[in-house]
Amino acid sequence: MGSRAVDDSSGEVASDDDTSSLHSFSTISSNDTKAVGKRKRKGSSKPPPKIGYVLKSSVTEDHGKSLFGVRFNDHLKDDSPKIFATAGSNRVTVYECCPSGAIKVICIFADPSPGPHAEEFFTCAWSFDKETGRPILAAAGEKGVIRVFSLATRKCIKNYIGHGTAINELQFHPLLTDVLMSVSKDYSIRLWNMRSDKLIAVLGGVDGHRSEAISADFSRDGRWIVSGGMDHSLKIWDIGSELMKGALWDSAKLNNKHYKTVQVNFPVFSTRDIHRNYVDCVRWIGDFVASKACENEIVLWKPGKINSSEIKGSQISKLHVLTVADCELWYIRFGLNVNNKVLALGNQFGKTYVWDLDIDNLMEAKHVLLSHPKCNTAVRQTAISRDGSVIICVCDDQTIWRWDKIKDEDDSVNDDSPDLLR
């Protein structure tokens, strides 16, 4: 693959046309200029976030199109290499985060269709084969076809066709790892069983999304799905109902040739009171939801009353707003690590906001701003490793940026930090 990579061991890029020295730094809030890690700013009444990140490497893919998706494989053991995949153009590329700070290509899956018939991938998601434990990777995009790849065989092992048009997001169930969710431009959300190859259910219809469904997420216990779309609405679907429990069980039976796909027309919760624009990213954070539209903010909210566990109707309890700048393009998605302790969102000019959520009061969450002069196009999605130590950003100019967490106070970025790009 014709990519150019930078790693922190050499501090140089394999390119002759980049001759100027560019300093890599991260900043805290819009009023500060440098990343200070855990150090307090003089004259500040409130301490800065306790996290800081430093740029380690950058890679440019050679397909000439935007990178829209990136995901870490969170199913690997803690002592395993950190593996992530990107989705863009007709490719899904798998990378390893090397201990040196570099990014190494492991394999590339490409749609062989020629010219205008080629796929453009928007999203990917990881799971694993229950029998062998080997990782599998699902990807989808413009064609509306879900492709499932095996890293062991380096082949596409399954295809699922059902959506009438593009698929915007894929998510695997957190407990039932054979269950895959797809979110589509055709207004619907679909659940698939990859063990039996059956379409479990279609969420949408009478009271579903009235325009393109863009994003959805499973709650950690797997009971709820929250979804957002171009109709500015957020909806919550109950897949822990008796109907859906039966569907999940029956669809998993390999010898059930007469299984009939369940149609779910009514979510248990629906609101348009949070956003006034396309809702392009939604994630559960415990009992709360984080949602983003093209409005320069992420809203943290809870369905129903703040002290109630009941989810129904349309009432919301808004908890907090995380504000950003220059994030008005649609289809820019934030990332959370698996335990919801770190959240990262890029903007349309290449800057990435990072919040430490491992605090007692989410209202006090503050951000660190990561930036580099050569990262100056839209950051379409961020991904964060399980332990929060690595953040990957993918951009419109086909670049991938690796930021590593600063381990010690002495490692904080300052004016004397080494040049990483030349």
In words, what does this structure look like?
- This protein is mostly beta strands.
- It has one domain (4-409): YVTN repeat-like/Quinoprotein amine dehydrogenase (Methylamine Dehydrogenase, Chain H, 7 Propeller).
- It contains one helix and 31 strands.
- A five-stranded antiparallel sheet has the order 1-3-31-30-29, with no helix packed on it. It has a five-stranded antiparallel sheet with strand order 2-28-27-26-25, with no helix packed on it.
- Strand 14 and strand 15 form a beta hairpin.
- Mean pLDDT is 86; it is low at 1-45 and 409-422.
Principal-axes shape call = globular
| Rg over C-alpha atoms, rounded to the nearest angstrom | 21 Å
CATH class, named Mainly Beta
CATH superfamily: YVTN repeat-like/Quinoprotein amine dehydrogenase
Please indicate the percent range of residues in DSSP E strands (runs of 2 or more).
Answer: 35-45%
SS field, number of helical segments: 1
- Our count of domains comes out at 1
CATH architecture label name: 7 Propeller
Distance between the termini: 21 Å
Oligomeric state of this protein: single chain
Secondary-structure content class: mainly beta
CATH fold node name: Methylamine Dehydrogenase, Chain H
Mean pLDDT: 86
Residues in helix, %? under 10%
Short key terms for the protein model shown above:
422 residues; mainly beta; Methylamine Dehydrogenase, Chain H; five-stranded antiparallel beta sheet; 1 helix; 31 strands; globular; disordered N terminus; disordered C terminus
